[in-house]
Amino acid sequence: MSFRLLVAAAAARRAGMSRVPGSDAPRHPALAARRGFAFTAPRLGGQTLVEKIAQRHAVGLGAGEAVRSGDFIAIRPRHVMTHDNTGAVIPKFNSIGATRLADPAQPVFALDHDIQNTGEKNQAKYRAIERFAQTHGSQFYPAGRGIAHQVLVEEGHAWPGAMVVGSDSHSNMYGGIGCLGTPVVRTDAAAIWATAQTWWQAPPVARVELRGALAPGVVGKDVIVALCALFARDEVLNHAVEFAGDGVRGLPVEDRLAIANMTTEWGALAGLFAVDDVTLRWYDARARDTRSPAVTPAAVAALRASVEAEPSRWAPDGDAVYAKHLWLDLGSLTPHVSGPDTVKAATPLAALEPQHVAINKAYIVSCVNSRAKDLREAADVIRAAQRARPGAPVRAAPGVAWYVAAASSQVMADAQASGDWQVLIDAGARTLPPGCGPCIGLGVGLLEDGEVGISATNRNYKGRMGSKKAHTYLASPAVVAASAIQGYICSPATAIRGAADTAATTAPSVRYGIEDAAPQARDASSAAGDAIRGFPAALEGRLVFLPADNLNTDGIYPGKYTYQDDITREQMKQIVMENYDPEFSRLIQPGDV
């Protein structure tokens, strides 16, 4: 049993469970061993919204115990999502002796990553996942329904005030609707299937104050791209982020979802917006859409009634204690472009455009920026260019391949009904099915050696979207559309005119800042309990140092391999770190650390 399963078993014991539900297998020693959980001592100040939601999903808290940052707790999330990696979670579930799901309504399965792969091996995996869901009575969404995160929001599985976890790093996205979303690894997912709960350490919480209002043409993608670059020294690494300030009121839910989604790339474990009238009006509109049976007028009315009757439940306390306080003046922000090849660097579009960075491929795909609003903003660039240049064709520039995929089948239907989808097709966009595709480096349209791409996705790490010898920039859907028709990275205004403005432009300075909170005193009597039996106190071996700044997950283990469920340890050894150093596997020796 892995370390994470040992701790998950300890979480189950805290709730009074002595074995995996539904299993007749001999009890693993970890389930019998004693394990304590650490809680911080009482302290001055109220709770953050993250702490409040986590407390409502905590299991086994004693009288008077309040969840605080740093606490190890057992949680029972509303849902746990797995996608294509369900195929890898199933054997982990079986390996702990489980035979049935503790709560069949809790898991949600949605196939979205490798849906362009029609090979028999992948299709057999998809059929096995569907059979597993049917056998256990859990919710299943087939390939083509959409990207899991978007589907969970549309179908009401991710719900305001709830805690939902997913075996995918972009589970942070649920925070855009006031749902505490956070990722778990596959082993944790298996433990939740078996016990309905797992362990979680409440992270430190950073308050990010958004001040003022965005100028026309500046969107949520620009906000998070700028935040990732302005605060690029791990200021929010392993934190939960709560967005606040008067600027939040002007952000539509679609922009909030985009911002929360990319808090993952910022290094955060969660990105959360409090529920407000903007959220409620968005749900009012969703309730009128009969395609999502769980998002009903009655459910939304109950949500609104709770928000109005219990305001303290839906907001942080006035004296909540935060690890740090960051702020950004939205009014000083202009469109930004991230990269190339890192989210920790971004350039104002006005400063980048004069460089005429030529592109080979353009993408409006992924869970961050392929909603109906995003597709409409891209189509509006085309429409405006057509009005400004009557009679002249407005299409992707020669040599530019432009790919578009909706975040879900519902989004695609909406874009088709509005005409936006056809506008993009007429402009030369090549459509892909609703799914992850090139964002994860799977399917058609990947970047090849020496190519440059601009994308409305969330990651531009080397090798992420194809060749590690390619370069990738990130931008908003409107900027991607403009760049696709001009052939180089440019503003929508330039694409609409058909040429750059010769007048010199200077991007204004972005105003932002950070204030570290005073450290909170902790009671020395607070203890973490005894160490888990069998876990080593120290590791010894030759230390291997990889001199690469900002090492990301795709550098450690390329994302395109993570959905090959039958890959062996020997094969893993050959590909680990290949995006940063193809010679890494040859240099490593047994016992290295």
What's this, in brief?
The protein has 593 residues and is of the alpha/beta class. 31% of the residues lie in helices and 13% in strands.
Describe this structure in words.
By secondary structure, the protein is of the alpha/beta class. It contains 21 helices and 20 strands. The strands form five sheets. A five-stranded parallel sheet has the order 5-4-3-6-7, sandwiched between helices. A five-stranded mixed sheet has the order 11-10-9-12-20, with helices on one face. Helix 11 (277-287) packs antiparallel against helix 12 (297-309).
Strand content: 5-15%
Q: How are strands sequenced across the largest beta sheet?
A: 5-4-3-6-7
Main sheet overview: 5 strands, parallel
Structural class: alpha/beta
Record the SSE blueprint.
Elements: H1 3-14, H2 29-32, H3 49-56, E1 58-59, E2 72-75, E3 79-82, H4 86-95, E4 107-110, H5 120-136, E5 139-141, H6 148-154, E6 163-166, E7 180-183, H7 186-195, E8 198-201, E9 205-211, H8 220-230, E10 240-244, H9 253-261, H10 263-266, E11 270-273, H11 277-287, H12 297-309, E12 324-329, E13 336-338, E14 346-348, H13 349-352, E15 361-364, H14 372-388, E16 401-404, H15 409-418, H16 420-426, E17 430-431, E18 452-455, E19 471-474, H17 477-486, H18 492-497, E20 512-516, H19 553-556, H20 569-575, H21 584-587
Parallel strand pairs: 3-4, 3-6, 4-5, 6-7, 9-10, 9-12, 10-11, 15-16, 15-18, 16-17, 18-19
Antiparallel strand pairs: 1-2, 2-8, 12-20, 13-14
Helix pairs in contact: 1-7, 4-7, 8-9, 11-12, 14-16, 14-17
